[in-house]
Each structure stands twice: as structure tokens, then as C-alpha cells.
Amino acid sequence: MTEHKESSVLARFASPLLILATIIWGSSFVVMKSSVDVLPTFWLLAIRFSFAALVLAVVIPVMILVIGVLMKLCTKLFEAMQKRIDNLNNTLQENLVAIRVVKAYVREKYEGEKFQKASANVQKLLLRAEMILSWNAPLMQLTVYSCILIISWLGARMIVSSGATSLTTGELMSMLTYCMNILMSLMMLSMVFVMITMSAASARRV
Q1: pLDDT of 53-73, one tens digit each?
Q2: Which position has the higher pLDDT, 31 or 48?
Q3: 128 vs 75, 76, 131, 203, CA distance in Å?
Q4: How sure is the predictor about 11, in pLDDT bands with cuts at 50, 70 and 90?
Q5: How far apart are CA 57 and CA 55, in angstroms?
Q6: Which pLDDT tens digit goes with each residue over 110-137?
Q7: How far apart are alpha carbons 39 and 95 in whole angstroms?
Q8: C-alpha–C-alpha distance, residues 122 and 12, integer Å
Q9: Close Cβ partners of 92 (under 8 Å, ≥ 6 residues apart)
Q10: If you ran DSSP here, which 8-state letter would residue 14 be given?
Q11: Closest CA to 194 of 2, 3, 8, 27
């Protein structure tokens, strides 16, 4: 603890611990449920509808790549934000400890501007990181509905070309249900990875 300022120690034992506890408690159930949903469903889909499983085998790495890029971009921003939060807390602590000195030398305006600058630095980094993370949902939805569209088009072609012998309308609907189950579970996992990105910087500080 002697390696850090008091403001940094206070920040490390407050916000990061709360974030980590929330992430661990909230994400463990989602990860287990999604894993249980995805693996058996994908296995059944691969046995009965191999072409749909092939489409998913292409789409899933794309989703993983998108999540990986977002996590890489945001992790450094959150780490820098934690350092700026330390600076903000240090500025606030100095003002509280030396409040009589500040008033005695009429430095309220200067200290207020100093605090505003530190606060603006935190806000700027936080907004930048959140703007990057906000792309997660639309990109995941674009991937999911593109996959559903491709599978629907391929299934409709099979139904028309074979006269509903190789694939029926009911089978197409069940296949789409399987695919939606898998993709929705993967979208839930992507939200967990977003939360992990936000907590990675906190984990390194604790």
C-alpha cells in the first residue's frame, strides 16, 4: 500500500472491488446457461442440418473477432481512465485537506478549474470507451440477422428445388429455431465479454 497514494488506495478498494463483485456474480450464470444452450443445440443442428451448422461455423468466428477487437480497443482506455480517476481523487483530497490554505490565499477559482480539468479528462476517456463498446450490440445483431437471412434463403432454395422432399417448411422452421437459440446465447456471451472488458482494468488494480 505504500507504493500508492492514499487517493489511489481509496479508489482501488472502492470502485474496482464493487465492479469485480458485480461482474463475477452477474456473469457466472449467463456463461453457464449459454454454454449449456449452445453446445447441445449446435450438435443437434450439425447432425440434422449440416449446411446450417456450416454457416454458423463461419459466423461464430466473425462474432469472436468483433468481440476481440472491441475488447482490445477498450481495455487500454479503461486502464488509462483508472489512472485519471486516481488523479481526480488526489485533486479532491488535496482540496479537502488544505481547504484552509486554499481559502487563505484565495485559490478557490484555480482549484475549481483544476478539478474541472481532471473531471473532464475522466469524462472524455469514459465517453470514448463507451462509444466503442456501444458498437457491440448493433454489430452482433447485424451478424445474427445476416446469418438467419442466409440460412432462410438456402433453406427456401432447398425446399423449392427438391419439391419439399429434402427439406420441408416445418424442418426449416425448427432449424431457424435452433439457430436463433445458438445466436441469442452467443449475443448474451458477447455482453458478458463487454462487462469483462470494463472490469479487466479494475482486476489489475486490486
Answers
A1: 888 888 888 888 888 888 888
A2: 48
A3: 12, 11, 5, 21
A4: low
A5: 5
A6: 777 777 887 888 888 888 888 888 888 8
A7: 56
A8: 16
A9: 7, 115
A10: S
A11: 27
